Amino acid sequence: MVEAAGERDLVSQMAVLRTRTVWERLVVPAFVYFFAMLYPFHRVNGPGRTAAAAGGCCLVRRTALERAGGVAAIRGAVIDDVALGRAVKRAGGRVWLGLADDVRSVRPYPTLGSLWRMIARSAYTQLRHSVVLLAGTVLGLAVVFLAPPVLTVAGLGQPWVLVPALAAWVLMTVTFVPMLRYYGQPWPAALLLPVTATLYLLMTVDSAVRHWRGRGAAWKGRSYSRERG
């Protein structure tokens, strides 16, 4: 996939994350799926303002990094890979982001608790600590991923409710299948996406609550009560 990067100032690949445990198989593919929704790769790789990077594998030109302000420009950022992508693009650099073929993460997140902490660490930061974006995200997750299965069950015997709700559930399932295949998971697991989306909704709210309580994010022995970047 790197061949598609062409002449870029920053090239990054999202490493294939570990999916050995039941919780990893449930949560990890959706993590990448939601990340790609938040930072659509085609928009990141285009000339627009959308920018991001994946820390699993990053290559950046020295001159582009210097124009962006160097490592100092992102030293206070919790999501330092995304911050790097933004800094490089803001300085006029060209960015490419894609999924990896051979780069694999060995970091384990075997339990729901470890996955919860990993996601809650940065979820509210990704929303720029905005209550408006938080509310929009919660509403969006509820409408897009939770309402269709709920209305499908509630609409049994009522075709005007059942048909559009079931169609929406099928559509979300179909869009998730390619990510499951990328992670070597069976396609029926896509039917559980509403369950995973509910977990992500709760993790995102928990991330905001931690911030409001002044606990901020904790990462690699550092605590960020007021994250920057």
TrEMBL record:
Record SUPFAM superfamilies: Nucleotide-diphospho-sugar transferases (SSF53448)
InterPro entries for the chain: Ceramide_glucosylTrfase (IPR025993), Nucleotide-diphossugar_trans (IPR029044)
Membrane topology of this protein: Multi-pass membrane protein
Keyword Transferase: yes
Pathway: Sphingolipid metabolism; Lipid metabolism; sphingolipid metabolism
Membrane spanning residue stretches: 22-41, 131-154, 160-180, 187-205
Keywords: Glycosyltransferase, Membrane, Transferase, Transmembrane, Transmembrane helix
Cellular localization per UniProt: Membrane
Protein's recorded name: Hopene-associated glycosyltransferase HpnB
The organism's place on the tree of life at top rank: Bacteria
Chief location bin: membrane
Classification via Pfam families: Glyco_transf_21
